[in-house]
Amino acid sequence: MSAEATNPEARPEVRPELRRRGRTRIDLRRLGRAALLGPTPRDRLPDAIGHVAEAHRAHHPDADLSILRRAYVLAESSHRGQMRKSGEPYITHPLAVTLILAELGAETTTLTASLLHDTVEDTDVTLDQVRAEFGDEVCFIVDGVTKVEKIDYGAAAEPETFRKMLVATGNDVRVMSIKLADRLHNMRTLGVMRPEKQARIAKVTRDVLIPLAERLGVQALKTELEDLVFAILHPEEYEHTRALIAAHAGEADPLPGIADSVRTVLRDAGIAAEVQVRPRHFVSVHRVALKRGELRGSDFGRILVLVGENADCYGVLGELHTCFTPVVSEFKDFIAAPKFNLYQSLHTAVATPDGYVAEVIVRTRQMHRVAEAGVIALGNPYTAAAAAASAAAAAEGGDGDEERVDPTRPGWLARLLDWQRSAPDPDTFWSGLRAELAQDREITVFRADGGTLGLPAGATCIDAAYAQYGETAHGCIGARVNGRLASLGTRLADGDTVQLLLAQDSSSGPAAEWLEHAETQAARIAISSWLRDHPDGATPTTTTSARAPLSVVGARGGGGNAVADLPDATVRLAGCCTPVPPDEVAGFVVRGGAVTVHRVECASVAQMRSLGRTSVAVHWRATADCRVTLTAESFGRPHLLADLTEAIARQGVEVVSATVEPPVEQRVRHSYTLQLPDASVLPALMRAMRDVPGVYDVDRA
């Protein structure tokens, strides 16, 4: 982590604009001098972390600061003599990271681990020492942010470090909070690194750290990281945006006047609210410029309205839409439907009489805190969850030492943890992680059994199948979306209900075309793994599972290879159940002296007996061909009949007749009367028909 730190003065033109308004910045030289003075008396905090203590007490007035003093003493003494590439004492880095977190409201355990986050990696301090002095929680967090040894992993060290951090984040999101603050400070001080190394670090920050900050809801870190990356990777666009902001600074800003009008409207309505003007950061201005072309004065910021209760948010919205002209297309309700990263607010835009359009964000103060700091604002979310998990484990006879349940863990993190286990190598994990994090919206779909699935926007039925069933989804043959049959490539929308249809033949496998429709890495890795293990598309030989029979009209013909124990009697196979060897059968004498043969489980058998029909013993000849009727249910598509007929012909079976019913809700039913050379080929024939793309069920009459 220290390797990324360099001289903060090397890019002086970047720092003033990127400085977040109102954010205390760290005087690294002052901290360095304070650090060199060494430990202070035990009865007071070291001067070097006085500002950290002040920021921490602003959010947690009753916090015990003694543990911070002990952590600082250990960090300072262990890092003593180490210098950053900028020439500053190394202790300035953990102090800066800790201050960032303290300003966001992190609790004491997080700040303690932050002060120590580089000690195990860069000094002789061991995890056992950290555990002995500060407890298991601090030790776990420090271990989570400690890089793997490059000497052990070589080029795979970076992806394996992120894999380790993700797994640790699954147990404790505070691990990633420290990593984000660590990267922010290193990005702030990246100036004297070689340009190619700056670009490499900035790309990893853009592809991995910024999406993670977005998903954890830490907007305060995300926006500054975006601006720092923007300045490095897109210097021309950055300079143009900076020029736009500088030009706007010399012009009259309409937003303060609009904010005053909003205050007056809300005051007259009796709504207690705080109204602020929030300047946009660099990347936001750049995006608005791309969207709207020429910028006006109101495009350089937004109006933020803070209230006390959720109901007040909608009261503010009503007053704004009554007293100003609303821009309907800009309205979004993230209170009723929060984003998957904990974000809640009302977004709207209003037009003023003089022609300006101002974007307005309405939220409670608690929503604002979470919007800025995300999971960091939740304090320690594990205490109650850990106690509940331990109690549940004890009640079930466990020892309570299982993985802690994180109530803040959203679906995207659970998905990452699931698919990373099956990522076969660091390169696959690294590319998959970037692809997964590039999907910046989440949807929720409902399962047929009442559960829910969290999926990225654009996910298909294939993704839902692997999210619900894992590798069992290899046998998925179709789906019903909102009660209607749909293809596996159907894209799902937020709130859809999906019922997945699985083949009962366990030898079924995915088709290569599935990769074209799979959006999640879990699905892509599972499909690719199966295709790699089955290069010829062959499936292992297994017995066909029993299926519930469908009622269809089968072939009506002679007795085939059925023989009745009644001399000179005509034998006929019943069309209602079309028995074939080695089915257990029963025969009954009907009008004209003929013997009709049924499967014993056929409903007609009981009817025949109730009518008093004469029962006749029937047996099968040792070898003979036979006739059978099969019904294939499938999703309609071009060339389906030709593909099914070809699959039947490849098994050496003759098609006597075929019937295709008109499609109903995209479902097509095919009935085939087939002459089999031997009844033993029937299981393989049915399996071959099920393997035809689009077919989700094949059954006998």
3D architecture notes:
It is a single chain. The chain is α+β, with helices and mostly antiparallel strands. Helix content is 43%, strand content 16%. It contains 27 helices and 21 strands. Strands 1, 2, 3, 4, 5 and 6 form a six-stranded mixed sheet that branches. The chain has a five-stranded mixed sheet with strand order 8-7-11-9-10, covered by helices on one side. A four-stranded mixed sheet has the order 13-15-14-16, covered by helices on one side. A hairpin with a 4-residue loop joins strand 7 (442-447) and strand 8 (452-456). Helix 13 (195-215) runs antiparallel to helix 14 (219-233).
Helix content: 40-55%
Low-pLDDT runs of 5+ residues are 1-46, 384-407, 538-558
Give the helix tally: 27
| Alpha-carbon distance between the two ends | 68 Å
Radius of gyration: 34 Å
Instruction: Report the average pLDDT across residues.
Output: 79
List the helices and strands and how they pair.
Layout lengths: L14 H4 L9 H9 L13 H10 L6 H14 L12 H12 L4 H8 L3 H4 L4 H8 L1 H10 L4 H4 L3 H15 L2 H15 L6 H21 L3 H15 L1 H15 L5 H14 L5 E6 L2 H11 L8 E7 L2 H14 L1 E2 L5 E2 L12 E6 L5 E8 H9 L9 H13 L15 H12 L3 H12 L4 E6 L4 E5 L4 H9 L6 E6 L2 E3 L10 E6 L18 H13 L28 E3 L6 E3 L11 E5 L5 E5 L3 H8 L4 E2 L1 E3 L5 E10 L4 H11 L3 E7 L6 E10 L5 H9 L4 E6 L1
Parallel strand pairs: 2-6, 7-11, 13-15
Antiparallel strand pairs: 1-2, 3-5, 4-5, 5-6, 7-8, 9-10, 9-11, 12-17, 14-15, 14-16, 18-20, 18-21, 19-20
Explain briefly what this protein structure is.
This protein has 701 residues and is of the alpha+beta class. Helix content is 43%, strand content 16%. The strands form 5 sheets. Strands 1, 2, 3, 4, 5 and 6 form a 6-stranded mixed sheet that branches. It has a 5-stranded mixed sheet with strand order 8-7-11-9-10, with helices on one face.
